[in-house]
Design a protein that fits this description.
Layout (H helix, E strand, L loop, with lengths): L6 E12 L2 E13 L4 E6 L5 H8 L8 E11 L5 E3 L5 H7 L4 E4 L3 H4 L6 H13 L3 H14 L5 H4 L9 H13 L5 E5 L7 H18 L2 E6 L2 H7 L2 E6 L2 E7 H6 L4 H8 L37 E16 L4 E17 L3 E6 L5 H8 L7 E6 L2 E2 L5 H7 L3 E4 L3 H4 L6 H11 L5 H14 L16 H13 L5 E5 L7 H18 L2 E5 L3 H7 L2 E6 L2 E7 H6 L4 H8 L24 E3 L9 E5 L2 E4 L3
Parallel strand pairs: 3-8, 3-9, 6-7, 7-8, 13-18, 13-19, 16-17, 17-18
Antiparallel strand pairs: 1-2, 1-4, 4-5, 9-10, 11-12, 11-14, 12-21, 14-15, 19-20, 20-23, 22-23
Helix pairs in contact: 4-5, 5-7, 15-16, 15-17, 16-17
């Protein structure tokens, strides 16, 4: 019966044992999900959203948690309803991945680095569905094609580290949907994805829901995604439910002040129309920030100059690992960035944004090109000189869990750059680290904690604090706020803009969130298949996009209005061509036309 709930959670309470004593993760949560229904749980980072979903999978126990109260009923069939909190390990193993699929928030930690993508995709198919190796591989390739991964036949033989962050997330989505589960739990499934692929993934989940009667528990902090996906919405705050209702009720007639503040803090595309400089983000529960827009000096000097940057990765095959082709990750990219200004790089996952940022810092060695930082030729520096140059160039990575050491206390991780360069010691070091914790809005008592004791958003703030420790001139922020809920995202972005204003820091902001990019950028560059296809002042690119890809990117941005749903409409995105070319292939240089002062569009694509 469709009107009977597939999942019935009553009075769920989850507690965690920490070094500081017992912490309540979820206090008293009750909800139902029916077949073919999408329930969205929204709230700030640390509100208990993920804990609620991990309890359904009984994975919360592996993170030091305990379900200390409530019931979790799951209807496996007409004749069998299971109390998940009491089920034994064999029954849970049979349910996990088969009847309940889960898309985890951080793809690199949910994929095994030593197994190929194909092996990880086929494991569940062979275990739960009894497929042969050949059948499972064919199904795996089809799943990769469904989540829009180019060249799926070759991707199944690659390892997770060979894929971009967005591609890894799509692999995790494919794994969760492989066995066509009755319930799909999606924990921030699209935070690492650009808007075009996000739109297609959301449409895919929505289609499976309608065709197979799959129920979806969708956990997110993106209110625009909630408006697109949800049938019903639960708003959580500090482990408690504060409001529940249909998606129309929550968006059009919210009852609680917290829900109203959550909706008001969402950055909306088009808010910056007619404004020339970036503006601070709105913070939940506060009036619009009074801070001045971060403006550079009268005629700021060029701090970073990139000319004809090319980065390629070899594709090796055979017993002798001969190079048979190259991945053209970054192809003839040129731009300049002035002190105290923000240039945003946007584009689809796998387009070369992150590789471009890493190439500038020489975390990846470029194939050719020139990079000048403060007039210094970065690509010609020796190892020792490069180490000193990196004091002025810091990076905030996309995946905070992978960039933090799980065995080291947070104090030592933030203090590490200061110790490495012998800039502080003793009590002055402690004071400096405490100040950095203050700056990223984390309590000082967190200094004694370890990364696993923090939420995803809190971990990202630690990574940002560490990048700020050396007072750099340039910060490359690679999807630095994609894991953060709207209120913390606003705090962190305002902090970066404040530092930019006070210290003249230049920011290369790599992101797929078009509304955030519009808010914080002085200039915007749009990347596609390793090349910049459009670059110019932010207002020109957003208000008068000239390239067809830029126009498609802007049209795919979800709107925080449940009556303007893009989901279910046909997404006319062309398949992403492969960036892999045979050895010896040399594409032509990038040729641009200037459509207005400082606004350039690629001609030869």
């Amino acid at each position: 019966m469709l009107d009977q709930p597939l999942v019935d959670v009553k009075n769920l309470r989850v507690e965690f044992e920490t070094s500081s004593g017992m912490v309540v993760g979820v206090e008293d949560v009750t909800f139902q999900i029916k077949p073919g229904e999408t329930l969205c749980i929204v709230g700030e980072s640390g509100s208990g959203k993920s804990v609620s979903s991990l309890s359904l999978m009984r994975l919360v126990e592996f993170g030091g948690g305990e379900i200390s109260g409530g019931t979790l009923l799951f209807k496996r069939s007409e004749d069998e309803t299971v109390e998940l909190s009491q089920a034994d390990s064999d029954k849970m193993r049979d349910i996990r991945g088969n009847e309940i699929g889960m898309i985890f928030q951080e793809p690199m930690t949910s994929l095994n680095p030593v197994f190929t993508v194909g092996r990880q995709l086929t494991e569940g198919l062979k275990l739960h569905m009894g497929m042969t190796d050949a059948e499972a591989k064919a199904r795996a390739i089809e799943l990769l094609r469904q989540v829009r991964i180019p060249e799926p036949e070759s991707r199944v033989n690659q390892y997770p580290h060979e894929l971009s962050g967005g591609m890894r997330q799509r692999v995790v989505i494919a794994m969760a949907m492989a066995c066509e589960p009755k319930l799909l739990i999606a924990d921030e499934p699209t935070t690492a994805l650009d808007v075009t692929i996000q739109a297609e993934i959301l449409s895919l989940i929505d289609r499976l829901k309608r065709e197979n009667g799959m129920a979806v528990l969708f956990i997110t902090h993106d209110m625009a995604v909630v408006a697109q996906m949800a049938d019903r919405v639960i708003v959580m705050y500090r482990g408690n439910m504060v409001e529940e209702g249909t998606v129309e009720e929550i968006f059009e007639n919210p009852k609680e002040d917290y829900t109203k503040a959550l909706l008001a803090a969402v950055p909306k595309l088009g808010e910056m129309r007619g404004k020339s400089a970036p503006e601070p983000m709105r913070i939940m529960g506060q009036e619009a920030a009074e801070a001045k827009a971060p403006a550079a000096g009268e005629n700021p000097e060029v701090l970073l100059e990139v000319k004809n940057l090319i980065t390629r990765f070899p594709v090796k095959k055979g017993l002798f690992r001969r190079t048979v082709a190259n991945v053209h990750a970054v192809e003839d990219v040129s731009f300049s960035l002035k002190a105290g200004q923000t240039l945003s790089l946007v584009g689809e996952s796998g387009c070369g944004k992150s590789t471009c940022g890493r190439s500038i810092l020489r975390l990846v060695e470029p194939t050719s090109g020139e990079v000048y930082m403060d007039g210094q030729d970065i690509l010609s520096l020796s190892t020792d000189d490069m180490r000193m140059a990196r004091r002025n160039m810091q990076m905030v990575f996309q995946d905070p869990f992978a960039s933090l050491n799980p065995q080291v206390r947070l104090f030592d991780q933030v203090a590490e750059p200061l110790r490495n360069y012998k800039l502080d010691s003793g009590s002055s070091l402690t004071d400096r680290v405490a100040t950095l914790f203050d700056r990223v809005h984390l309590p000082r008592n967190f200094m004694r904690r370890y990364p696993h004791e923090l939420s995803g958003g809190q971990r990202q703030r630690i990574a940002i604090a560490r990048a700020l420790a050396l007072n750099p001139k340039l910060i490359i922020a690679d999807e630095a706020v994609s894991a953060l809920d709207v209120s913390v995202q606003a705090q962190v972005l305002n902090l970066m803009m404040e530092l930019q204003q006070d210290l003249g820091i230049a920011l290369l902001f790599i992101s797929h969130d078009m509304a955030v990019v519009e808010r914080v950028s002085h200039h915007t560059a749009v990347m596609y298949l390793g090349r910049i296809v459009e670059i110019g002042p932010r207002a020109r690119v957003f208000e008068h996009p000239q390239h067809s890809y830029t126009q498609a990117l802007l049209s795919a941005v979800p709107v925080a209005d449940p009556r303007k749903k893009l989901i279910g409409k046909e997404m006319n995105f062309k398949p992403i061509p492969s960036p892999i070319f045979p050895v010896g292939y040399e594409p032509g240089p990038s040729v641009y036309s200037e459509v207005s002062p400082g606004h350039f569009v690629l001609q030869n694509d």
